[in-house]
Amino acid sequence: MRLIRVMCSGRVDLSFVLRAFSNGIDGVFIGACHLNECNYVTHGNYHALNMVLLCKRIMEHIGLNPERLRIEFMSGAEAGLFIESVNGFINKVKGLGPIGQGEGIGKDELKARLAEITRLVPYIKVVKNEKLGTRLLNPEEYDSFFTKDEIDRLFSEVISYYIDPEKCQACMTCARRCPAEAIISAKGQIHVINQEKCIKCGTCFEACPPKFKAVKKIAGGLVPPPLPEDQRTIVRKDKEK
Ligand code: SF4
Ligand code: SF4
Description:
Bound molecules: iron/sulfur cluster
Structural class: alpha+beta
Shape: elongated
Distance between the termini: 72 Å
Radius of gyration: 22 Å
Number of helices: 11
Helix content: 25-40%
Largest sheet: 2 strands, parallel
């Protein structure tokens, strides 16, 4: 067991959990403060709870047993409860077997599935932002808060962004704002989104000036191939004369 201390359970990001699984960790246990006893106005433990509920559904979606992830609420004074909870979890995970093996998924396949989901974490957080901030007051709501259908839909309708080469005016606004440096940009060149680097935050869609409207949102469909490099130079009409 490896213990990682954080200032607040709300600090435990979805990508941290996925990274642990990707590194071959068999189970992740999050010990959070009791709900409604958070030190901070943010009530980070509610965020942690929602993240866990979401992550469990994502795990199901990629074929991982959701019981490999658990959150329990306890105070710093409840050492006995901590020991009991962690021991119970370890026994559970031992029963499930090594990650992937217990589910019948090969190592490489599991890594590939986790890498694909990890790449989508910023997108998932944007789409589920409102739900992730909800304070679930009744434990009976936990199971149905995120549904299997909802998560299947989330991945089948993944949004992609594409720059229409007919409309791009190479103003460079999108490239300056892109947080992932995913836009191939140069002066006088039609801009192109590198789909491998794009984290689907939608910033370019919002940033492209309305008079150009060059960034398109594609839901679940195929993204057209990028314009070949030698065809990206913009020839302005006034310069053609
Ligand atoms: S959606 Fe646009 S701004 Fe966001 S990462 Fe992708 S290319 Fe960059
Ligand atoms: S903001 Fe729009 S017009 Fe400007 S470079 Fe980006 S896609 Fe092209």
